[in-house]
Amino acid sequence: MERTLAIIKPDGVARGITGEVVKRLEGKDFRIVAMKMIHLSKKQAEGFYAVHQGKPFFESLTDFMSSGPAVVMVLEGEDIIARYRQLMGATNYKEAAEGTIRKDFATDIEKNVVHGSDAPETAAFEMAYFFNHLEIVS
Ligand code: ATP
Ligand code: MG
Fold first, then answer.
1. Residue 105: band (very low, low, confident or very high) from pLDDT cuts 50, 70, 90
2. What's the topology of domain 2-135?
């Protein structure tokens, strides 16, 4: 069993597609074991995306991520990190495969609706950024 952090980014929440994303998760055996809504501050967004500090899109990305409420979740399942990345689709929605969340809903390389951890180490950091162990059901 593996866990990953998923986020419905502010564009997804603002556009009212939270339910659609959750439906795709539940329909495909991605067990949601923690979930809450949070409006990140600019500082909190910078901390979350610290690995991207110094990149040309960092300022804009952290402005976007702190622009409104987001829904953060912990997902659990076998090979969940890779399976959820597959369900999300490529970072650039123009390159995302048919049937992925980003292909179907993203409008921009930055405003791409969802986030997912990319490795066990980043998943551990990202889950702990939002949830303590009492907030994750077992
Ligand atoms: P995420 O980490 O949000 O799940 P990802 O792993 O597919 O996305 P990363 O390379 O980690 O992609 O980039 C983090 C986020 O930064 C992207 O999801 C996107 O919102 C934004 N981003 C990435 N590349 C660019 C870019 N070239 N221009 C603008 N925004 C970008
Ligand atoms: Mg990433």
1. very high
2. Alpha-Beta Plaits (3.30.70)
- How far is the C-alpha of 42 from the C-alpha of 39, rounded, in Å? 10
Q: What is the pLDDT of residues 43-63, one digit of tens each?
A: 999 999 999 999 999 999 999
3-state secondary structure 51-111: HHCCCCCHHHHHHHHCCCCEEEEEEEECCHHHHHHHHHCCCCHHHCCCCCHHHHHCCCCCC
Ligand 2 centre distance from Cα of residue 55 (Å): 13
Q: What are the boundaries of each domain within the chain?
A: 2-135
CA of 111 to the centre of ligand 1 (A): 9
Single-letter amino acid, residue 83: R
Computed over every residue of the chain, the mean pLDDT equals: 97
User: Could you tell me the sign of the dihedral formed by the alpha carbons of 85, 13, 15, 41, in that order?
Assistant: negative
